[in-house]
Specification:
The chain is mainly α. It has eleven helices and no strands. The chain has one domain: Glycolipid transfer protein (Glycolipid transfer protein, GLTP), CATH 1.10.3520.
């Protein structure tokens, strides 16, 4: 049974796995309601971020700098959650504590980790939406550029911007990129359907992160 399960998991592509892990139980019986209440926005936020790293791994060295930044921020957030899963179950709890301590704007703060992870997730969201909305468009570089300008560019300093420009030259062909994202998925329409579901789940997480950052005037922080 365990071997069968492992084989089934291998046949899934990264976005499908993320979607299944993040899918909320349907409202109904008491057990579903209890499961919903136990969910942690911090854990879900980490789940999205970790799967984003795996997706970037599939692409190769193209966005290595972005991948490393995501990994460091994931580790920072994971460490604080591990200290007290109950206390730091929500993103708001983490940011609020650092604001009260006066550490939220420090370079190694969890608040900055949440901020940059949300921007990276938003970049990926725009990129996936671009792929779906421009199914017949072969120029992946243009789709990536639009996503970058809309999400990350306003907050990047010249070093980060220069690193992106180098990475942009290594972007694979659109067909190769989609094939890497789809894995063993045979039909693009199935892949597109999964992406839409995943994005609908991710959106509330982005809204929650942005709301707490805006509340404390931390949403405009740029690269240090």
């Amino acid at each position: 049974m365990e071997m069968r399960r492992e084989e089934m998991e291998k046949g899934k592509y990264e976005l499908r796995i993320a979607m299944e892990e993040l899918s909320l139980p349907c409202p109904g019986n008491e057990e579903d309601q209890q499961q919903r209440q136990k969910r942690s926005s911090t854990m879900d936020f980490l789940c999205v971020s970790k799967h984003l790293i795996h997706v970037l791994d599939e692409i190769g060295p193209t966005l290595l700098v972005l991948r490393q930044d995501i990994q460091q921020n994931v580790q920072r957030l994971h460490d604080v959650l591990a200290r007290d899963p109950s206390k730091y179950a929500s993103l708001a709890a983490i940011v609020t504590e650092e604001v009260e301590e006066g550490t939220s704007k420090k370079a190694n703060s969890c608040t900055r980790a949440i901020l940059w992870l949300s921007r990276s997730i938003n970049f990926s969201k725009h990129l996936l939406e671009g792929l779906l909305n421009n199914h017949d468009q072969s120029n992946l570089e243009e789709i990536v550029e639009k996503a970058y300008v809309a999400t990350l560019k306003p907050w990047h300093g010249w070093i980060a911007s220069a690193a992106y420009r180098v990475a942009q030259k290594l972007i694979p062909d659109r067909e190769i990129f989609i094939a890497l994202l789809m894995g063993n998925c045979q039909e693009f329409k199935d892949f597109a359907g999964d992406v839409k579901v995943l994005l609908s789940i991710v959106q509330p997480l982005l809204e929650e992160a942005n709301a707490i950052l805006v509340k404390h005037n931390l949403d405009k922080l740029k690269s240090t």
